[in-house]
Write a structure and sequence with these properties.
The structure is a single chain. The chain is α/β, with parallel strands linked by helices and 226 residues long. It has helices at residues 44-51, 74-84, 100-104, 106-110, 113-129, 144-156, 174-190, 202-207, and strands spanning 5-13, 19-28, 33-37, 58-64, 67-68, 85-88, 162-166, 194-198, 210-215, 218-219. It has a six-stranded mixed beta sheet, sandwiched between helices. A four-stranded antiparallel beta sheet has the order 2-1-4-5, covered by helices on one side. It is globular and about 45 Å long. The structure holds adenosine-5'-diphosphate (ADP). The site of adenosine-5'-diphosphate has 11 residues, from helix 1.
Length: 226
């Protein structure tokens, strides 16, 4: 399944009411790879997390396919994320004491029973594809690049239509970053996923179909970006 994004009049505020982000209009085609760039503090991560309903003070319309996630309650929003969104956090957020397999298949432990087996199978396939051979070693002994690949496998475990990544190459050396960029863009393309990544990494941005820019909480005009 693929989901187009239609976003209208999105405003995200801080808890004190300050406006952090204001986006009038944004459309992303299903299966499109989109980079988000801009200065530090501009609102890039705020937009990324708003797109999956993780920014509490959001108003407007964020429609993925037929679903306007801002019109859903918390429980329904969490369900939408479980079923449709994989998130790769900047600092990986892995559980140190769990194995690569345990971390990547975490969703299986919480998901519906009938989804557990496909999630585990998917995770093993993905970890193999990403070159993590020793899946049963706990991740506390893993390098940054290996951790990031476990985080990718976890994000993709439930076969989500949408992959969101926050500075996925920031903590990697160049070689590991380049491998990760190829892994992610190839996977997104092969499996027709919508892939949206906040990044300063020009090599990553260069591989995306389109790059949008956030400046001071607003979308800059896109002319010349694609
Ligand atoms: P970027 O990802 O572009 O570096 P962020 O989206 O993280 O920027 O942050 C945008 C602005 O919003 C920054 O000024 C940041 O300090 C502020 N901000 C982010 N989250 C919150 C929050 N929960 N409450 C208050 N301010 C926040």
């Amino acid at each position: 399944m693929t989901l187009p994004l239609t976003l209208r009049n999105l405003t995200v505020r801080a808890s004190n009411g300050r406006v952090l982000l204001n986006v009038d209009d944004l459309e992303i085609r299903p299966g499109e790879a989109v980079g988000i760039r801009g200065p530090s503090g501009a609102g890039k991560s705020t937009l990324l997390y708003a797109l999956c309903g993780l920014q509490p003070n959001s108003t407007g319309e964020i429609r993925w396919g037929e679903t306007d996630i801002l019109s859903l309650g918390e429980g329904q929003r969490a369900k939408f994320r479980r079923e449709n969104v994989g998130i790769i956090f900047q600092d990986f957020l892995l559980f140190e004491e769990l194995t690569a397999l345990g971390n990547a298949a975490l969703a299986a432990a919480f998901g519906e029973k009938k989804r557990r087996r496909p999630i585990r199978a998917n995770v093993e396939r993905m970890l193999g594809h990403l070159g993590i051979e020793d899946m049963t070693r706990s991740v506390d002994s893993f390098s940054g690049g290996e951790r990031q690949r476990v985080a990718i496998a976890r994000a993709l475990a439930g076969d989500p239509a949408i992959i969101l990544a926050d500075e996925p190459t920031a903590s990697l050396d160049r070689e590991a970053a380049d491998r990760l960029i190829s892994d992610l863009t190839d996977l997104a393309r092969e499996e027709n996923k919508t892939f949206i990544a906040v990044s300063h990494d020009l090599k990553l941005l260069d591989r995306m179909d389109r790059v949008i820019e956030i400046i001071d909480g607003r979308l800059a005009p896109e002319a010349g970006n694609d």
